[in-house]
Amino acid sequence: MSPTKRRNLQRWSSEYHLDGFAKLGYPGIIYAQGSKDDVEDFAENVKAMQWKALKTRFLEPLESLGERSTGSSRELVSGWNEFEKVGQVVEVMRRMGRGKYVTEMGIGGGNE
Predict the structure, then answer these.
(1) CA atoms of 44 and 97, how far apart (whole Å)
(2) Which of 12, 55, 66, 95 is 20 to 30 A from residue 21's alpha carbon, by CA?
(3) What is the CATH number that goes with domain 3-103?
(4) Long-range contacts for 77-80 (Cβ within 8 Å, ≥24 apart)?
């Protein structure tokens, strides 16, 4: 991921008051949480950048999982973070109760 993209993700996460992360390199992963409108605006900005391939895998309201902004996922992902290894993503998502989202996509199923 280019330095410009990384700076844009950091800036937008701040502007839209989002928590989340980007996993650099291949496979690249971007995860953001916040208000529905802010996440959708953030996603539109991300999609507008030039990528070799980009897919939105899922958007979900936190309330649908019985969580609120003070819930466990907010505590595990605070601010904007960058990861270099798939294992870091799998571990954070697993601790948030969302590990299946990455493993069902074939990410982190091996020995990364």
Answers:
(1) 26
(2) 66
(3) 3.30.70
(4) 77/19, 77/20, 77/21, 77/31, 77/33, 78/19, 79/13, 79/19, 80/9, 80/10, 80/13, 80/14, 80/18, 80/19, 80/20, 80/21, 80/22
C-alpha pair distances (Å), 89 with each of 1, 36, 66, 85, 106: 16, 22, 22, 7, 13
pLDDT digit string (tens) for the chain, length 112 residues: 889 999 999 999 999 999 999 999 888 889 999 999 999 999 999 999 988 888 887 777 665 444 444 445 555 678 899 999 999 999 998 888 888 888 888 887 654 4
Residue that is written with structure tokens 């870091």 in the block: 88
